[in-house]
Amino acid sequence: MQIKYSNHFLSKLEDVLAESDYVLRYEKGTFKSGYCILKETKIVIVNKYFTTEGKVNCLIDIITNLDIDLSNISEKNKKLVSEISQSTLNL
Fold it and tell me: Cα–Cα–Cα angle for 76, 78, 79, nearest 5°?
């Protein structure tokens, strides 16, 4: 899968998290990895000062590390999650 660093692709990744049980927020912070996951409350916080490329990379990393229940998301987002998982395995 070719990763596109555009606002459109960023919106697709945000849709995956929106359909899952997790809430995505963009906030300022001093987290070293650029994001923070509060698993107890299912909140994902990404550094709001990141560029589009940084936000896309963070969301891809987050999506591959979270246990997202695929039964609750649409078919197109299931396909996107599957493609992201396969592309990160091949790296």
Answer: 65
Instruction: Quick: pLDDT tens for 16-75.
Output: 999 998 899 999 877 777 778 887 888 899 989 899 999 999 999 999 988 888 888 999
Pairwise CA distance, residues 89 & 48, whole Å: 27
Instruction: Supply the DSSP symbol for 42.
Output: T
Q: What is the pTM of this model?
A: 0.86
Q: List the one residue out of 86, 88, 67 whose CA is nearest residue 21.
A: 67
β-pairing verdict for 23-27 and 43-47: parallel
Question: Which residue segments constitute the domains of the chain, with CATH numbers given?
Answer: 7-89 (3.30.2010)
CB of 10 within 8 A of CB of 56?
yes
Task: Using DSSP, state whether 68 is helix, strand or coil.
Answer: coil
